[in-house]
Amino acid sequence: MTSPVPTPLHAIHQALGASFTDFAGWSMPVRYGSETAEHNAVRTTAGLFDLSHMGEIEVTGREAGRALDRALVGRPSKIGLGRARYSMICAEDGGIIDDLVVYRLEEERYLVVANASNVHVVAPALVERAEGYDAVVRDASAEWALIAVQGPASPAIVAALTDLDVPSLKYYAIDAGTVAGVDVLLARTGYTGEDGFEIYCEPSSAAAVWEAITEAGTPHGLQPAGLACRDTLRLEAGMPLYGHELNRDTTPFEAGLGRVVSFEKLDGFVGDAALATRREEGPRSVLVGLVAAGRRSPRAGYAIADPATGDEIGTVTSGSPSPTLGRPIAMAYVRPDLAAVGTKVHVDVRGSREDAEIVDLPFYSKK
Amino acid sequence: MSNPSHLSYTAEHEWIETRGDVARVGVTAFATEALGDIVFVELPEVGSKITGGESCGELESTKSVSDLFAPADGEILEINSAVVEDPALINSDPFGAGWLFEMRVSGAPDLLDAAAYDALIEE
After folding, report:
1. Domains of chain B listed by start with CATH number
2. Most buried residue among A111, A142, A195, A362 by CB atoms closer than 10 A?
3. CA distance to partner chain A, nearest, from residue B115 (Å)
């Protein structure tokens, strides 16, 4: 085992008294104090996250867009300049290799942001899939730190620090500018279900950006926020997490994300034949939301049964007590014929059958 | 992190305060920090018999769920209904208001003193 890599903000996290966890080879802050307080800060004011573990892959060249159309399930060549799309990279059999955010920075320059745990697979796959195109793929993860400010107060906090016009930066848009005098890419994206920003900068500038945001944000109620609350925030927002809802044995259609798959592409794409078949046949299981009736939370891996027959009909992929709803919530894959909203199920919570009901996703939407 | 010297401890991160054959039981600050915010606690019923080293309840936080292990053989005399109502007390005051239950201890349980427990969690 190699020891986990610290992010450029490690010393700041230590000074803030963070607890750390090893995550995809990185030493990441899991919480600074109470993860429930951090969760609530993001929902009501703002939270500040270090996401420097995320992988950044640059794709440049005359045919960068066309190469990405071939490599991914979406159609990056159609992304407008300065805009972003959620996408996925799939294997030939349609299984999900990773979920991604693709930013079009310039006409012939894209930034593909991959999960930390997958960037070592995604980058080589993109290199291989771009062969024959006039495009260059480069894993630039080491050149970017990533800081996120999320929550309803985040536009006011960021506006006070940037030369960019924050009100005109739309959701899923990105622009180059400065924050606290530092050159950054400022994106209006996130993984919390709130309005917010993701700020890409050089690792050597990350501390200055973090401290300026802390200073500007503290009067608004901003708090540093760790990976623990990031997970409950994304779960409430019904956002899938790779390794839980998404994996190599799942296609975008099971995950309810068939809309990100575009079959109308010049050169086709890797996995298109398998995914066309799956679209035709329908998913084998369906991703649903669950709300538990009691106080014990369904957790990843717990079995779901049909109360009428006792038959196992699915598996929980993520579950946690929801700080916002005050009850346990979960995402799960279940048999398509028993996936309707309102269906009552049993979850096997460590040997006891607990009542739960299938509900619409997301569990939480911002006002 | 300081573990009070007048308490005894188990390797499963419970503390036990013995007064004659009656003992008050809780979990340590080390345990609550590892768990994160506790949102649900399930305690044994008053009058039930518990067996040292075996699970007698559970503590659930946003991130995980952990068994609560009986620190000794015995019978449950009282549970702290305040922590059932407000499990956050376990995080805010694990050695005080966040106690979990009182039990009548039978036999002589194998416990650690504060110095031995400090050494255990240093590892």
Report:
1. 8-107 (2.40.50.100)
2. A111
3. 24
